Amino acid sequence: VQLQASGGGLVQAGDSLRLSCAASGRTFSSYTMGWFRQAPGKERDFVSAISGSSGNTYYHDSVKGRFTISRDNAKNTVYLQMNSLKPEDTAVYYCAARAGLYSGDYRRYSYWGQGTLVTVSS
Question: 60: closest CA among 78, 34, 40?
Fold first, then answer.
């Protein structure tokens, strides 16, 4: 599976962005897809995930109510709609895929996109 993330940019606090992650492969619908982020000098943190089979969604507490993950299996694409952005959301955002159930541990994801930078100014 190859992943290509896009949609990052420079925005002001309170603005919105939508990240996209396009995947190759015919089994996309069976993969759990996740979004992680990494700020400079920090660990890679879980943001959100969506399961392949049930479409169940999962969020880190810090983004609940502001971010929404979704997927379009016909387009092999997963999205992360980010609203009410805060300066602390600034990071490189990565999409990832794993052939299994949901996990919030980045080490359990086998496939990674190249990352897209989100910068939120105050």
Answer: 34
Structure tokens at 73: 């299996």
Q: How far apart are the first and last CA of the chain?
A: 37
**Which tens digit of pLDDT belongs to each residue from 32-71?**
999 999 999 999 999 999 998 789 999 999 999 999 999 9
Residue entry with tokens 């015919």:
26
Whole-angstrom Cα distance, residue 58 to residue 104? Answer: 9
- Residue recorded with tokens 């420079």: 10
Ranges of beta strands (E only) in the chain are 3-6, 9-12, 17-23, 32-38, 44-50, 57-59, 67-72, 77-82, 91-98, 111-112, 116-121
The model's confidence at residue 25, banded by pLDDT at 50, 70 and 90, is: confident
